[in-house]
Design goal:
InterPro entries: Flagellar_biosynth_FliO. This is Flagellar protein FliO/FliZ. It is found in: Cell membrane. The chain crosses the membrane at residues 6-27. One of its GO terms (biological process) is bacterial-type flagellum organization. The chain is of the alpha+beta class and 130 residues long. The chain has a domain at 81-130. 62% of the residues lie in helices and 25% in strands. The protein has a four-stranded antiparallel sheet with strand order 1-2-3-4, with no helix packed on it. The chain is flat and about 70 Å long. The termini are far apart. The relative contact order is 0.05.
């Protein structure tokens, strides 16, 4: 009985690749669904501190808290005052605006690259006709 042929091996690798992509897609989708359901508790920002621990700004209702999450447990480090909460919200809003501006800039840059390509082609074509 012959061993596994190359085509069977490639089919197996392709199937494994598809399963990994599908699992990744489904996990991301489930995470988004889970985030939408939770309206009372939101993780505003997460910063990894080590491989197994992180610091998070968590919103619970109207209160903002700095929490540590690790394998050994979770702990509230600080409850933010109203002023600190407003500062955090302003910073997040500014980051959102900056991201939007970068996205807009990328669109403009892409449009300019397209226009440049068209002009370059017209310029080159004008010499070909002569």
């Amino acid at each position: 009985m012959p061993g596994i042929g190359i085509s069977q091996f490639l089919q197996m690798l392709f199937a494994l690749f598809l399963i990994i992509i599908l699992a990744n897609f489904l996990l991301k989708r489930l995470d988004r669904i889970n985030q939408v359901r939770s309206k009372a508790i939101k993780i505003i920002e997460r910063v990894p501190v080590s491989k197994s621990s992180s610091l998070c700004i968590v919103q619970i209702g109207t209160q903002y808290m700095l929490m540590s999450f690790s394998e050994s447990g979770n702990e509230v480090i600080k409850e933010f005052s109203q002023k600190e909460k407003e500062d955090i919200q302003k910073r997040i809003h500014q980051q959102t605006q900056d991201t939007k501006n970068i996205t807009d800039l990328k669109k403009i840059t892409g449009d300019l690259k397209g226009k440049y390509g068209q002009l370059k082609k017209k310029y080159e074509d004008s010499f070909k006709q002569d």
